[in-house]
Amino acid sequence: MPDFLWKWRREIVFSLLIIISLGMLVSRREPGLVSRGLYQGVSWVAVPLQKISAVMVKRSTHFISLIASISRIQEENVQLTHRVEKLNLENILLQEQARENLVLRRELEYKSRQPVNFMPAEVIARDPASWLDRLVLDRGAADQVKQGSGVITPYGVAGRVIQVNQSSAVIMLLLDTQSSVAGLVERSRITGTIKGTGQGWLKLLHISSEDDIRVGDVIITSRLSSLFASGLPIGDVVSIKPSENGLMLDIKVRPRVNFKTLARLLILKGEE
Amino acid sequence: MKHCLLPMLVLLMVILQTTVMPYLAIGEAAPDLVFLLVVFLAIQRSTTLGIWTAFGAGLLQDIAAGGPLGLNAVLLIGLAYLVGQVRRKLFKDNLSAQVLIVVLFTWLHQFLVFFWLNTVMATTFGLEKWALRAFGMSVFHAVLAPGLFRWWRSWIQGENIYRYLISGRKNQGARWSRLRRMS
Questions:
Q1: N or C terminus of chain B: which is more exposed, having fewer CB within 10 Å?
Q2: Which residue has the higher pLDDT, B120 or B14?
């Protein structure tokens, strides 16, 4: 019997480990005690190391890019100074308009929108060899991050939290093929569904060929979305083609967020 | 101490894969250090060690990068077993043969991921994406494999630590005694 086991040891180990791995993969929708313990244990070891490594890499790449772009920074500085002056002026005008808007809303007894509460987070890990568009943030259950929370950047919507560990959280980016968000065409107020393609762009679904949509239209989050506040930019329409049956449109949307350079994100914590 | 070298190497590769490699990615392609390590162990050491490492490293990679738990483990275990079967028919110290195995298995690995995602996870990736990724990754792997394999071989044998710290001193002592005898 031991000879038999020794002879077939490779095949036995192979079969055993394949079965265990497949079991974990199949039960991923309802993680059991073992899976959860494994996640917590590995995160306990890996997350601090990932944080240190991510900071070191970011600092070194930042330093290298700083040296390489000193002359460009000087030119940009002059341009930005002019721009700041211009924006200051615009800001004053906008503040005045906001005050006026507030007064008018009060007069019309509109329910004012509650401010959105968010938490900044840093990207600590991302596997470039993975086909799935997911990344790991340095905030977790200890920071009151909840599964399903929306994640944004100053440029627009980035994704949502799909898994929360003690000190880290996994987010699924908008680009992921399993991601979908309710979207709205800002100009014509048509609603559709924004879906990831896994190829660096998004598609807008459920828009019929009779709807009013043009190349260049901005897509924003809809009030139908439970994850995001309405009005956050998602992307711009770059091409529109009729679908094979001619009833619907195949719409390609370029996301506002540059997903390749994501470093800091904001996790939405719901309304205050 | 020597038994800790392989787990330490696995952890180091997973950390590098999830923090440094995103900066080396060109378009769809980026090196996969964990895959390379598993192939290296299955070629240079033993199939069984390759399979065990594939299981541990695959789970670690899934958790550290937020992927579905078990996906990398299943695929890497399968690849380690297959590499072990191929290795018997090849001269394992031939570097060109090793690079060829790495390139072929990169294409196979990417195809298995593509197949799994499209059939089980209902994604809609096209074959052109698979070809583009596999091509880019196989170029990365072919360039990196010789250097990495050499580094890993010396790491696992403990050369970095033992040879320079302990054996180095012994050799130095032997050199001194030889010099004394000569004088």
A1: C
A2: B14
